Amino acid sequence: MENGSVKVGMVSLGCPKNQVDAEILLALLKKGGYELTNDAGSADVVVINTCGFIESAKQESIDNILEFCELKKEGKLKCVVVTGCLAERYRDEVAKEIPEADVVLGIGSNTQIVSAIEQALSGERVLRFGKKTDLPLEGERVLSTLPYYAYLKIAEGCSNGCSYCAIPMIRGKFRSRSMESILAEAEGLAARGVKELVVVAQDTSRYGEDLYGESKLPELLEALCRIEGFVWIRTLYCYPERITDRLLDVIAKEDKLVKYLDIPLQHCSGHVLEAMNRSGDRKSLTALMKKIRERIPGMTLRTTLIAGFPGETKEDFAELMDFVHEIAFERLGCFAYSAEEGTKAAAMENQVPEKTKLRRADHIMEQQMFINEKKNRAELGKVKKTIVEGYDKYGGVYFGRTESDAPDIDGKIFFHSEKKLQMGDFVDVLVEDVLDYDLIGTVTD
């Protein structure tokens, strides 16, 4: 069978960083002569780019693998390929427990996907696990996002050593791309019509430490802002201890940098953070959030928290609730602690019961719902610059995002417009109402 007559579909799960890997895989497949399809259910070959970060993500990955293996049994599919974090982390288990998977590739073997599929289609089972550091950090991509935005991965792996996290085991140590290669890729994305650039890594604020001896994120962001074509540049995953005055100065002065920072804090209790191998406490984190807001008025602060970490007492949780109420983050997600095999936290004593973890996470999110309601109501009567994402024909309204909302993570704004709009257009929307986490309004121009 010629490659050109074989249709390949991709299912990519998990984070934006994994999505960039999927886009590089798609480019390799296209270059290898395969026909790409957005409908994985009608493909001859399906590549499942898995997530293996926490239990719920692992289960979603396994469910997807089994679903496509069932389609293969029914004769609707010729080949199932498993790659990504689950394949890397549980290579032996996936290979043994899911024999229907024709190809299992660790992340270090992603560049071999074309030859692996060719072998599988000829009847061989392929299991390849190269060195983590062989994962390509750059290369051609087939963008899977909507055409007006794209992710830009500036580093891979993590060296922070948080006690609850399996990422270093899966992805290896933190390693930055050169600034030259990042800027060259960004130039290419702008030339393709990308208007919103989303900068990602496991820890973007650590960018450049391994190559240049110090964080070069501020310099990188300044250079990205000089590229014509981008309207918004968004930065995700900045660790609190690396948010410097220099970084805040750059965000404040550069018009293209949206006033939005994603800072994964995980907790505020000093002794819980110490057990997590994280720095800081409630006092230092409160001071940092206050400083950011003072230096950059209108800043949207997003964070993620973990409830029910081993040893978290009722007092620790009460302190976390108070902290969330005091800071009143514009965007917040809270997850029940997931004990991951091989991590230090999984072996800790004083594990919190599952029901308690879930209840505590729910309490945080219930409190955040009230905070969001209040924050959204404060937007009534304001005009918000909005990127158009599409049109809801059933509701008869357009929808999009303000600079306070990251793609696929945060809320939306629904709005009416008398003139026809296109995806990727920027419009000014007068906020007139609130619906849960979303805003409702009308185009003013």
General description of the model:
Helix 12 (282-295) packs parallel to helix 13 and helix 13 (314-327) runs parallel beside helix 14. With 445 residues, this protein is of the alpha/beta class. The protein contains 14 helices and 19 strands. It is 35% helix and 23% strand. The N and C termini lie far apart (55 Å). The protein has 3 domains: 3-134, Rossmann fold (3-Layer(aba) Sandwich), CATH 3.40.50; 149-377, tm_1862 like domain (pyruvate-formate lyase- activating enzyme), CATH 3.80.30; 383-443, OB fold (Dihydrolipoamide Acetyltransferase, E2P) (Beta Barrel), CATH 2.40.50.140.
What features would you highlight for this structure?
single chain, 445 residues, alpha/beta, Rossmann fold, pyruvate-formate lyase- activating enzyme, OB fold (Dihydrolipoamide Acetyltransferase, E2P), six-stranded parallel β-sheet, 14 helices, 23% strand, globular
